[in-house]
User: Fold this.
Amino acid sequence: MNRKTFLQKSFYSAVGLSVATGFYSWQIEPFWLEFVKLKMPIKKLPAHLVGKTVMQISDIHVGNKFDYNYLIESFQKAQAYNPDFVVYTGDFIDYEDQHQFLQLKEVFQYAVKGTLGTLGVLGNHDYGKDWVEEDVANSVISILEQQQIKLLRNEEVAIQGLHFIGIDDYWGLHFNPKKATKKFNKDLPYIALCHNPDVCDLEVWNGYNSWILSGHTHGGQVKPPFLKPPILPVKNKRYSSGKIDLDNGRTLYINRALGCLHQVRFNVRPEITIFELENA
Assistant:
């Protein structure tokens, strides 16, 4: 093989690889859902909750950027796991106009619900453009509550002896983590829901010492092999995805998102997480 032929073949191989990678990142991985299963040890967990499951779904982003029928299909797959608790950790819509409310209603006719309880918190996109549209957030809440999904807005609820704290979005209009954690009791079992993991670095936790479930980052959506994601919408670049041990006995889990803002993923598959409860 002469030099010219070698260069031509190398060029066409590189072009072919680029096209294949682009197609995979655009048409395959954004819809290649992974169900991630993990143990969730919780202090003081009641005996009757040992072995029960908590399903986390995050960053659904119902809108016009990708085919939201994928979300309906994902919900249907998730329902087969028959989770005991389901928690949604924000960014239900990618708001552009009122049409997103009709889309949200359509998708959430198939919402995954827990046999014991279904809860959620808002994300920044649920506050509309520039995260300042109160009426958008109120419409999202209304649609979800019609499907028996309770949105926690800086408050705590107990279900079957398990306490859930829900913190409103860090970038939204009603962020108040001190209010959310003011009733925290270290002698009770807890899970906290918080869309943006940067909140974990604020001095607002009132001694909280259990699990925190968040989303927001999408795992970066694009991650070169063996490298960190080049783009993350958080101050703390440690907060990419997965389980992270924090100080004071806290454990953070960042879900990689079910949906996406732009239809591209590489080495960061969409995720629904299923935790099995156990006593710590």
User: Anything to note?
Assistant: The radius of gyration is 20 Å. The chain has a mean pLDDT of 93.
